[in-house]
């Protein structure tokens, strides 16, 4: 009986020692796992930091490119604006140059007509000369898009005519119509550049 009790006691003590050693081994495993976790976390952090630095460098390069492009475009636009302004000023100064050049022959003909008046004996020839100058000038205006606004006999239209006065109409057909033109009006293409000054029949 005593031998059995001794064996039972030894077995119980062995079990106790085993249970005492178990927590130590578990703690060692936990420490190893936590160490591994820390290393993995630090590696991840280092990798994320490296990636962020790379992205930041790429963003800075792109930003520098965009800024350079902006400066170039800004300079090009400024040059374009200055050039356009200069061209506009030159056009304003010399825009009527060609018109004036083409009018000069008319002035030459008028001067010749005035010179011939002093020595003229044939009045009909002088009239023909003046009419020729007038017709050339009207033709030149027509070539440049200038045309006369229709006058006498036309219905009065405030979009084209400016009434100077009213007089009794010479006939029933002319009531409310233009009976006389004091100053002719003109179109430049489709735009009125001068209204006709007219007399209206009533």
How would you describe this protein?
4% of the residues are buried. 68% of the residues lie in helices and 14% in strands. The mean pLDDT is 81. A 3-stranded antiparallel beta sheet has the order 1-4-5. A 3-stranded mixed beta sheet has the order 2-6-3, with no helix packed on it. With 202 residues, it is α+β, with helices and mostly antiparallel strands. It has 2 domains: 79 residues; 105 residues, Head domain of nucleotide exchange factor GrpE (Nucleotide Exchange Factor Grpe, Chain A, domain 2, Roll), CATH 2.30.22. It is built from 3 helices and 6 strands. Strand 4 and strand 5 form a beta hairpin. The termini are far apart.
Notable traits:
202 residues; alpha+beta; Nucleotide Exchange Factor Grpe, Chain A, domain 2; 3-stranded antiparallel beta sheet; 3-stranded mixed beta sheet; 3 helices; elongated
CATH class of the largest domain: Mainly Beta
Report the span from N to C terminus: 158 Å
- Written as H for each helix and E for each strand, in order along the chain, the element string is HHHEEEEEE
Work out the number of β strands: 6
Q: Characterize the main sheet.
A: 3 strands, antiparallel
Strand residues, percent = 5-15%
Radius of gyration: 54 Å
Number of helices: 3
- Low-confidence runs of at least 5 consecutive residues: none
């Amino acid at each position: 009986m005593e031998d059995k009790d001794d064996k039972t006691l030894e077995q119980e003590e062995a079990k106790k020692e085993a249970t005492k050693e178990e927590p130590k081994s578990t703690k060692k495993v936990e420490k190893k796992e936590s160490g591994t976790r820390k290393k993995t976390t630090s590696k991840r952090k280092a990798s994320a930091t490296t990636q962020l630095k790379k992205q930041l460098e790429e963003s800075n390069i792109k930003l520098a490119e965009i800024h350079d492009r902006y400066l170039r475009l800004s300079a090009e636009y400024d040059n374009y604006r200055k050039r356009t302004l200069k061209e506009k000023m030159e056009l304003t100064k010399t825009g009527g140059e060609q018109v004036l050049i083409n009018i000069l022959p008319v002035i030459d003909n008028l001067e010749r007509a005035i010179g011939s008046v002093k020595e003229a004996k044939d009045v009909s020839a002088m009239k023909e000369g003046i009419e020729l100058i007038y017709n050339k000038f009207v033709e030149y205006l027509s070539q440049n898009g200038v045309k006369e606004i229709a006058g006498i006999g036309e219905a009065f239209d405030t979009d084209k005519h400016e009434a100077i006065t009213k007089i009794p109409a010479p006939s029933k057909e002319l009531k409310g119509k233009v009976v006389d033109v004091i100053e002719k009006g003109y179109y430049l293409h489709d735009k009125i550049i001068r209204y006709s000054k007219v007399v209206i029949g009533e």
